[in-house]
Amino acid sequence: MLVVDQLTKRFGANTAVDNASFTVDRPLMIGIIGRSGAGKSTFLRMMNRLTDASEGEIRFEGRNVLALKGADKRAWQSDCAMIFQQFNLVPRMDVVSNVLHGTLAKRPVLSTMFNLYPREDIHRAIDILERLGIAAHAAKRAEALSGGQQQRVAIARALMQDPKVILADEPIASLDPMNAQIVMKALRRIHDEDGRMVIANLHTLDTARRYCDRVIGMRDGRIVFDGTPAQLTTGVARDIYGAGSDFSEDATSTEIREPVAVTEIRHAEVAL
Ligand SMILES: Nc1ncnc2c1ncn2[C@@H]1O[C@H](COP(=O)(O)OP(=O)(O)OP(=O)(O)O)[C@@H](O)[C@H]1O
């Protein structure tokens, strides 16, 4: 389904992604972990064609997506939606309009400029917001929502594209532990229920272990681990992070320890 073949990206003398290869034969939920600068974002950006590769191929369903041009490239970018750490919403625009922006690539420029969307798209946007537990905020400005709610709006916008793959670049790095869990659960549910592949860059080991079927570890641009969460032992993690024997998983943890926070999560999840 997805074949990453000897993928390399150089920025001058710096090799950000170094001869990376892996194969995915069904739509899994994949976590990419590694310390800052390991090449995780650059990989996602190549996959979505925001950055060109220096060498190698990314084949999705048999096509080398790195060779696509013009309308084919835009169609791929629509099939492969991206969400970001900072949500990238239009802050002063209402939530529904932000979600409808997910149809941008498929809409004539003029109708988008004047916010003219077909009724069925508006209904679909509201259905998606409902699915994510935030339909009650549909008419509010995006900036009025909490970080966790804004990230769910960004996921809703991605879903409007009806993508085959969702790429998430540190989707929970700006969120508190409670909202981080709500967002990760939303991504996992979308994967489970819709069968979409999700590839998420994550900076916390426990999140990768808990939500992903497969974990890829990057260090200095190279893939140094590719396995199941069960295979991701503390020793392996130490290798990925290039850490010494004093390495503590707590340093990369988003676990919630206070019982009160767990109760809050359960309340929030009822809405999901
Ligand atoms: N546009 C760019 N120009 C030059 N160098 C870049 C550019 N983008 C990334 N790099 C370099 O490529 C390497 C990998 O960066 P990348 O952002 O992919 O790492 P990362 O694992 O996503 O880290 P982080 O978690 O901090 O975002 C780093 O050394 C970075 O400085």
Automatic annotation (TrEMBL):
Query: What Pfam family is a match for this entry?
Result: ABC_tran
Is ATP-binding a UniProt keyword of this protein?
yes
Q: Which InterPro entries match?
A: AAA+_ATPase (IPR003593), ABC_transporter-like_ATP-bd (IPR003439), ABC_transporter-like_CS (IPR017871), ABC_transpr_PhnC (IPR012693), MetN_ABC_transporter-like (IPR050086), P-loop_NTPase (IPR027417)
**PROSITE patterns linked to this entry:** ABC_TRANSPORTER_1, ABC_TRANSPORTER_2
Q: Name one GO molecular function term.
A: ATP hydrolysis activity
> What sequence ranges are listed for the domain ABC transporter?
2-245
Q: Does the keyword Cell membrane apply?
A: yes
Give the stretches traversing the membrane: none
Q: Keywords in alphabetical order, please.
A: ATP-binding, Cell inner membrane, Cell membrane, Membrane, Nucleotide-binding, Translocase, Transport
Q: Cellular component GO terms, alphabetically?
A: membrane
NCBIfam families from the entry? ABC_phnC (TIGR02315)
Q: What is this protein called?
A: Phosphonate transport system ATP-binding protein
Q: Which organism is it from?
A: Salipiger thiooxidans
